[in-house]
Design brief:
By secondary structure, the chain is an alpha/beta fold. The protein contains 22 helices and 32 strands. The N and C termini lie far apart (69 Å). It binds adenosine-5'-diphosphate and zinc ion (ZN) (2 copies).
Length: 748
């Protein structure tokens, strides 16, 4: 009797059971069910809960609640704790993330976790805390002379003068050490601090120029698209005033009570850009970038997600922030590769921005002077609307580009006499010159003059780069370093040559050639220390440093008013790249670097050193510009059936053992071939590989790739979905680390 009773009551309980489906951050590609007391209201979708999973306590996100579970109730655990009463991830974001999880074939729990800032991922309360705002007590002119040579302090007070009531999110874009720099000013009473519960609100001091012609048309076209799902490509030459168009469109969307999201590439979220936004926009401006600590980031995220922020400016991951009043999305420098996440959840922020605009019925503006080939193709197909800005906003003429044939020319440290002469002329005329070389360090190779051996990385198939200033060899792929050898590691000879050029070497050569001129070197090494990038940029922008040397960190978005000459040293590398995007990237990089020249009154000159002056693509780029270049390069893509004429996904595998990655990808390929045979009507997917990666060994791991290519996106994704559902169970899967990369930006 007793036993029967127990069975009955448990059956009854099962009838009225409630289950909560939770996205748990684990590599398993599905949600998990947890039990919930039937007499209590279950947590809302989008709320965080703590659950126990494989004997760990994890923070997951509720996706739904249901009255059924495919798993018997007694085998399910209860939800341990509910963190949020209200959803932290809104309904539209939950559906975007579910879509992204299936499109990128990445586990839903990890996708949801990627959308949350770290503080919330760890379970911090979703509450906005008190806010500090800072303002100047004295006029800027009186403060500046008292500061001496303290660039960060200078920038801080200038920012405080340009907008009233700046808060930590604004000031932290100036320097990660802004608090330390500001403290003495607060102590002296020059800067006032206010604590409040109120929202960061920006008071614009500057209303910008009135727009005319193409700029006005572009702005109006954006404004007319409010409330509609529409993609507008703002294709404007460098310096054509795209940012002005964004600012005025943002102002309009804000006045209409909506939020604007501005996505910018990693490198360009500089104080310069944030300063410009802060000086021009009213309302609550929030930035999300890597310089914020977890608390600051969490707070900025909440301001956006709870609808307080009017404008959110951020790098890639900002596309995943809930925005309840979203009315406009802008992707600046949309061609930039940093919009693609390169590990874990490998999403493309530009593509997710397009999905968000569909969900929110709002326009997206894709801005660039060198639009990606995918975007150009979508313009041709009529899916995107193109808006053109064909002249520079300041009235400056476009820079003049010329190829400099360096074959059989004497070179001084990699620079031709003509380049050096031209630099001298520009400096004499009071201009500023930049030498661009996309390689940091002193020299890319240390070569033995006797036996020819190069100093290689022990863990990668790569040469070590010579770093002269720090006296070491460093691998640019895995980061390993060792002391500079005094003798050849193979034969013991002391005749070692440093072969090739990097920024360090070029900067040294320029310092010798122009001893009286201040030089700013901008690359990952010279800007590693916190605040160093800001200092170097300040020297470059103010014109104090009249010679600039740098890598692609110098290419993006910066406005150096005095710059009149740009020399590009290693343009040829892009001509022989192994990747289908090499040529596109080369053209974009050259034109972006070139676009830094002559943005104000003096016309800009760009000299491109090359050993391939007859190369038709290089010639087209220089004489006919990006459009013609892109048309020709797109023809090559069409012939080779590469994106955007096909769709690709890359399966990567790596392991310490050299055979396992290839063996595993053979198994994957065999699965895909068999899968295709059973579904003949579905159309074909071409498999390229498996093959070792271009650089097979990286950080001690052997790497292999299998490329899937199809003319049908749907077929590709169906095959990937079937693969993803079994891949963990395929032979050898446990022996390697594998990943699926949909729409890869490189095949590396
Ligand atoms: P882009 O974003 O296309 O590179 P910017 O918006 O940075 O161009 O504009 C380049 C320069 O031209 C900036 O100094 C900007 O202040 C100026 N500018 C932009 N629009 C105008 C305009 N309508 N009238 C005068 N100057 C302008
Ligand atoms: Zn040797
Ligand atoms: Zn290495």
């Amino acid at each position: 009797m007793v036993v029967e009773d127990a069975v009955n009551s448990s059956a009854e309980a099962a009838e009225s059971q409630v289950f909560v489906q939770v996205a748990v951050p684990t590599p398993v590609a599905r949600c998990f069910d947890y039990r919930w007391p039937s007499d209590e209201t279950p947590p809302v979708p989008g709320a965080r809960v703590v659950v126990s999973f494989a004997r760990r306590r994890l923070v997951g996100v509720v996706v739904a609640s249901a009255s059924h579970s495919s798993v018997p109730s007694e085998r399910l655990k209860r939800v341990t704790e509910v963190i949020d009463r209200e959803a932290v991830l809104s309904a539209d974001l939950l559906s975007l993330l579910s879509w992204a999880a299936s499109y990128y074939h990445h586990p839903i729990g990890e996708v949801m976790a990627a959308a949350l800032p770290r503080a919330l991922r760890l379970g911090a309360p979703a509450e906005i805390t008190q806010r500090e705002t800072f303002s100047l007590n004295e006029p800027l002119e009186e403060i500046l002379p008292t500061l001496g040579r303290a660039p960060v302090q200078r920038q801080l007070v200038q920012r405080l003068a340009s907008a009233s009531g700046c808060d930590s999110t604004v000031l932290s874009t100036i320097s990660a050490r802004w608090r330390t720099s500001l403290a003495p000013l607060i102590e002296r009473g020059v800067v006032a601090v206010e604590h409040s519960m109120s929202l960061p609100s920006n008071g614009a001091t500057d209303h910008g120029p009135a727009l005319e012609g193409e700029q006005a048309l572009a702005r109006d076209a954006v404004i007319e698209s409010f409330g509609q799902q529409k993609t507008l490509v703002l294709n404007g030459v460098t310096g054509s005033g795209k940012t002005e168009v964004y600012l005025q469109a943002i102002e309009a969307v804000r006045k209409g009570g909506k939020q604007a999201l501005v996505l910018v590439p990693e490198i360009s979220l500089t104080p310069q850009l944030m300063g410009r936004f802060a000086a021009r926009l009213d309302g609550c401006l929030v930035s999300l970038h890597s310089g914020l600590n977890d608390t600051e980031r969490g707070q900025a995220w909440l301001l956006a997600a709870q609808g307080h922020a009017d404008v959110v400016v951020g790098t890639r991951s900002a596309v995943l922030v809930p925005l309840p009043r979203l009315g406009l999305v802008i992707v600046d420098e949309e061609h930039d590769g940093s919009f693609k996440q390169q590990d874990g959840f490998r999403y493309h922020a530009r593509d997710l921005a397009l999905m968000r605009s569909r969900d929110c019925q709002c326009p997206v503006v894709l801005g660039s002077a060198t639009p990606s080939f995918e975007t150009l193709r979508n313009v041709t197909l009529g899916r995107f609307t193109e808006l053109r800005l064909s002249v520079r906003a300041t009235g400056a003429p476009p820079p003049s580009l010329a190829l400099l044939d360096i074959r059989r020319r004497p070179l001084v440290e990699g620079m031709s006499d003509r380049l050096l002469d031209t630099i001298a002329q520009h400096l004499e005329a009071g201009g500023q010159a930049m030498v661009f070389i996309n390689r940091r360090g002193f020299a890319p190779t240390l070569l033995c003059n006797d036996c020819g051996a190069a100093a290689d990385c022990a863990r990668c198939d790569a040469h070590m780069t010579v770093h002269a200033a720090s006296g070491c060899l460093r691998c640019h792929h895995c980061g390993a370093d060792r002391a500079m050898p005094t003798a050849c590691e193979s034969c013991g000879s002391i005749h070692l040559d440093r072969v090739g050029y990097g920024t360090e070497r070029i900067a040294r050569a320029l310092a010798e050639a122009f001893p009286d001129i201040e030089i700013a070197r901008i690359d990952r090494d010279s800007t590693r220390r916190r605040g160093a990038l800001e200092e170097q940029l300040d020297r470059a922008v103010s014109g104090r440093a009249r010679l600039l040397v740098g890598t692609q960190m110098l290419a993006k978005g910066h406005h150096f008013p005095a710059l009149t000459l740009v020399g590009i040293l290693d343009a040829d590398r892009g001509l022989f790249g192994i990747d289908f995007r090499s040529l596109e990237n080369m053209g974009q990089l050259i034109l972006q670097v070139a676009g830094r020249a002559g943005r104000e009154s003096t016309p800009g000159t760009v000299l491109i050193q090359t050993r391939n002056p007859d190369n038709p693509m290089l010639q087209t780029l220089v004489s006919d510009g990006y459009d013609t270049f892109a048309t020709h390069a797109l023809d090559e893509r069409r012939v080779a059936n590469w994106p955007p004429y096909s769709f690709v996904a890359l399966i990567r595998a790596e392991a310490v053992n050299d055979r396992q990655p290839l063996d595993f990808l053979d198994t994957v390929a065999a699965f895909l071939v068999a899968d295709m045979q059973t579904r003949e009507a579905d159309g074909q997917i071409d498999l390229l590989g498996p093959a070792p990666a271009p650089m097979e060994r990286l950080a001690g791991k052997f790497r292999a790739r299998l490329l899937l290519q199809s003319e049908s996106r749907a077929h590709l994704h169906e095959a990937l979905a079937r693969l993803a559902s079994v891949i963990d169970a395929l032979e050898g899967a446990r022996l390697v680390r594998w990943s699926i990369d949909v729409d890869p930006v490189d095949l590396f």
